[in-house]
Amino acid sequence: MAKRMVYDAMLLAVALIIFVVEAQIPPLVPIAGVKLGLANIITVYSMFRVGAGDTLAILACRVIIGSIYCGQPVSFIYSAAGGIMCYLVMLLMKRILTERQIWVCGVFGAIAHGGGQTAVAVVMFGTAALSYLPLLTLSGIITGLFTGLCAQYVSNRSKYFEK
Amino acid sequence: MFKKTVTLLFCLIMCGCAAREQTAEFFAMDTYMQIRYHSDKDLSDKLEDRVRQIEREISVTDTGSAVYKLNESGRAVFSHEGSALVDDAIGLCAKTEGAMDISVYPIVREWGFTTGEYHIPDDDVIARLLERTDYRLIKNDGDIVTVPDGMMIDLGCIGKGYTGDVLAEMLREEGVRSGILDLGGNIQTIGKKPDGSMWRVGIRSPLVTSGYDSLGVLMSSDEAVITSGGYERFFEENGKVYWHIIDPSTGYPAKSGIISATVIGGSGEVCDALSTALFVMGEERAADFWRDDRSFDMILVTDDGRVVITPSVKDRFTLNDGEYLLQVIDDEN
Amino acid sequence: MKTKTWIIVTAVIFVVSGVLTAAMFWGRGRTAEVVLDGRVIERIDLDAVKEGYSFDVKCDGGYNRIRVEHGRICISDSDCPDCVCVRYGWLSGGSVPIVCMPHKLVIRIADGDDETDAVSGRGQHG
Question: Which candidate in C120, C122, C125 is best for mutational testing of the B interface (most B CBs within 10 A)?
Fold first, then answer.
C-alpha cells in the first residue's frame, strides 16, 4: 500500500513537472484551448499501469495543484471539465484496448478533453462556442497521438523500472 | 469516498459558472459607448441610467446641467458628486501645471470644435479669451461653484474617464470579474478575459491616412487605457491641420511634437486628464512629469515617427507598424 | 479490436474534423450588423455578397446610405451634420465600428477580430 502511494506520488510529481514546464513554452498555435497537453502522458500511463482509481486521484491533484502554480480560476474550470471527460473516456477505453494499443487511449482522451472544454465554453458563451469543437478535435488527435505514443513507449519499457 | 468528493466538487464549480457575455450599448456624452461584461445578470439599464445621471450634471449643452448653469451665470449649485468632480478637475489642472485646463472651453468653442463650424479665430479674440482662461480662479465652496465673469468650464476632459471608473466599480460590486468598457475610445478593463488571457487593447494609429488600424496592441488587465490624439476632431485650412486639443497657454492647437498620447493607469479620470495634458506638454516635459509621478504608464507617438514608452509597458506592448521606432524612456531622473 | 481498426477509426475522425474545421474557418463569412439606436436592423454576410449594392436607412430626421460590397461595407452618403461616418471609409474587420452619432447608427463586424478586443483613442464622435 505504502509503496503504491509512493509510486502514485512520483507519477503526480512527474505530471506536475511536465505541466509546469509546458506552461512556460509559448503556445505553438495562438488559439485558446489548443496545446500539447504533455501531462496527459502520465494519465494514460497510470490508467494502464497503475489503475483507474489511482489515476483519478493523480489527475485531480495535478489539475488542482497545477492551476495553483500557473493558471487562473477560469482556466482551472476548463482543465477540470476537460480532465473529467478525458478520464471517463479513458476508463471506457481501458476495457477494450490491449497493452499494445495504449496510444489509442491518448488520442481519444485528448478528443474528450477538447469536448469537455467546449462544453464549458458552451455554458459560458452559448452554443456559438460549438464551432471550436472540430478544431479542438483535430488538434486533440495530433497531440493525443503524440502523448499516447509516448505513454505507449514508456509502458513498453515499464518492466525495467516496475515491479 | 475520495472519488465521490472530488467529483462532487468539480460539478459544483461547473454549475456555479453560468455567467454569460452581456453587452450594453448606448449613445451618451456625445459618443458611442459599448460595455461587455460577464455576468448572469443583465445590468445594461443600470449602467445606462448611471451614465445619464452623470451626463445630466456635467453636460455643457444640456440646459438643465449644473455646468451649463455655471457657464451661463457664473455660479451653480452642484451635487456632491459633481462638486467632487470639479475639485478633482482643478486638482489635476494644478498637478499638470495648467497643461490641461478645464476653463479653456470658450477657446475650444471659438475654434468651432464643439459645433463643427470650424474656423481660425482672430489673434485678438484668442488673446481676449486667454485672459479668462485660468483654472485657479474657479471657486468651489460647499458644492457651490463660482467662476469669474466670462469664464466657462468643460469637465469633458475627465468626464468619460470618471464615468468609466464609476461603471467599472459598479460592475465589480455586482460580482463581474471580466469585462471591457469602451466609452467612445476610452478603454477600461476589468480582470482578464474569460479564458484567462489578458485583454488586447489596440492603440489607434494617429496618422489619419492609416484609417482605423492599430499602431500596436497592449495587453491589459484592471486598468484604464486612454488615448488623446489630434485625429479626433480636426480641420484643414490652407494646408495646415488644426486639431481640437488646445494649448491653454497659447490658445492655439497644441503643437508639441506629440501626435498621440496614451495613458495607462488605475484611475480612468486621471488617465483621461493626463492624456490631454501630456499631449500639450510634449515629449520632454511628459517624460519629466512621468519620472516625478510614476503612478501611470504612457505610450507617446511623436511627429517624427517614434513611439516612446515607459519601461514597464515594454513587456506587454507589441508594435504592429514597422514604420515606427520604439524607444523606452530612461528610468533615471 | 485490431490495431488496424483503431488506426482507421482515428484517421476517419481526423479527416472529418479536418473538413469541419476548414468549413468553419473558410466558410465563416464576416457578418456586418447594422444597429439603429441599439436595435440590430440588418445582418449581412459580407463574404457572401457577390454584387455590390446600396440601401438607405431612415433615421431620426435623416438617412444614411449604406454601400455593401464583397467583404466590406461603408456609409457612402449621409445627411448628418458632421459626416464622420462617411469619412470612416470601408469597414471590413476589426473592433472599431462605423458610428454615426447624430443618427445613432452603428455598423460593426460581429465577432470580427481576434487581434484586439477594443481600440483606445477611437475618436470623439465614434
Answer: C120
Expressed as residue numbers, the domain containing B280 is 52-328
Q: Within a domain: residue B236?
A: yes
Ordered by where they begin, the domains of chain A are 2-160 (1.10.1760.20)
Nearest to C38 among B25, B213, B232 (CB): B25
Query: What's the pLDDT tens digit per position in B123-182?
Result: 999 999 999 999 999 999 999 999 999 999 999 989 999 999 999 999 999 999 999 999
Tell me the residue type at B222. D
CA distance C119 to C109: 14
Report domain C30-110's class. mainly beta
pLDDT at A31: 65
| Residues of chain A that touch chain C, judged by Cβ-Cβ distance less than 8 Å | 96-97, 100-101, 104, 107, 111, 128, 131, 133-135, 137-138, 141, 145
Question: Is C88 within 8 Å of chain B by CB?
Answer: yes
Locate the domains of chain C by residue range.
30-110
Give the integer Cα–Cα distance in Å for B288 and B17.
Answer: 47
Distance CA B179, CA A123 (A): 17
Instruction: Of B120-134, B197-211, B228-242, give the range with the top mean pLDDT.
Output: B120-134
The continuous run of DSSP H or E covering B322 comes out as none
pLDDT of the residue at A158: 80
Enumerate residues 17 to 36 of chain B having a beta carbon within 8 A of any beta carbon in chain C. 25-27, 30-32, 34
- Listed by number, the residues of chain C in 18-77 with a beta carbon closer than 8 Å to a beta carbon of chain A are 18, 20-21, 23-25, 28
Q: How many domains does chain B have?
A: 1
- Residues A157 and A118 sit within 8 Å (Cβ to Cβ): no
Would residue B199 count as lying in a domain?
Answer: yes
